[in-house]
Write a structure and sequence with these properties.
four-stranded mixed β-sheet; 33% helix; single chain; 430 residues; binds ligand EPZ; alpha+beta
Amino acid sequence: MEQYVIKGGNPLVGEVEIAGAKNAALAILAASIMTDETILIENMPNVRDTNVLLEAIQEIGATVERVSKSCVKVNGSTIQALSVDYEFIKKIRASYYLLGALLGKYKHAEVPLPGGCNIGSRPIDQHLKGFRALGASVEIRHGAIVTQADELKGSHIFLDVVSVGATINIMMAASLANGRTIIENAAREPHVVDVANFLNSMGANIKGAGTDVIRIKGVEKLHKTEYSIIPDQIEAGTFMFAAAATRGDVLVRNVIPKHLEATTAKLEEIGCEVEEFDDAVRVMANRSLRRTHVKTLPYPGYPTDMQPQIAVTLAMAQGTSIVTESIFENRFKYVDELSRMGANIKVQGNTAIIDGVSSLAGARVCASDLRAGAALVIAGLAAEGITIIDDIVYIQRGYEDFEVKLRSLGAEIEKVSSEKEIQKFRLRVS
Ligand code: EPZ
């Protein structure tokens, strides 16, 4: 298993380029098979999750052509099967976006039930509620969701919880339903808007994405398009906190500052200077950081995917901070690992009470999920001494060339896969 080995203590300084948004790309890849014409997608992040979903759509018969590292062509006219193999949903939950895409296009889809994951049980009842409202039958057969409809008819759907996945899945199916669909209490994340814009560029008729009421007028069919995915605001925010935690000065390029407002506000609150440009933000942290309170909320609130990153930064700030996780029920697993690096954090239910310490000490730690893993990298970059992070496969799910980008900012970090390589690293940096 590959690991990261880090020698902490270097402030991150320089410029870093952000890739396309993983959570937009996954839904857009699923939606791209909803036409029989060829789709060109640019600014595709080259990360494990998108590569697995590309394999999944090839497996059901779609034609995929890699034009470059960040550009792919998809043609769904060759699809033979409407059933997605368990191996894909096991690797990435977002394979469930193929439910909405296949149901919309073929009025039939079979996708294994996604299990829970390391941050919570993650039910998909709202997705299925939406499909049923559109007139589809939904059954669970031998661990798989089987949904089909003679005809999909527009409906007025009120989501019981604000759900990114359910909003996107229902939006896809409704795009090819007969009549009008209204989704109330819809998620407003930038990637929901990106998927709506992508579908509209294919000829769909979706209005209101980015608000909590989305109106969809079903169309007969969708057509070819060329589309560029929005920058990944979570990757951007991760680098912003890495700059803050290492007292650095980093220009994060290829971002949409508006998508980063909640993150920027918190960074300024804890004592960083953030300068905004048209498509970049600069984070400077040349003094000690202060405590704050933060609660994760649906967009435009503070993002849950940025919760571990701010918590690790607050672990080295002055004073006592409180982080409340309101979206997922189990997203503090990384705290035990941080405590092994000297952090002083107490988790009570969905709240973490963080007493800042002057510095963390390097240790051998283990990534439990994607964003927790990224937070442990930030901890290692700021800590004194050597940190080894196991199970970095989680981090590679959502961060393209993470260690390469960090090295370009002055970090001492390497991807290794043996004790021998770790010893070589220790000798080189000592
Ligand atoms: C998406 O997950 C993201 N994943 C997550 O990012 C992100 O944390 C989450 O949205 C919230 O922003 C992708 O886009 C691939 P939800 P999703 O449905 O769609 C409950 C990362 O690190 N819920 O908005 O699964 C659910 O349990 C990942 O990139 C239901 O109860 O999240 C949760 O408490 C981690 N029933 C809340 O809603 C449902 O049918 C929000 O979940 C659906 C969700």
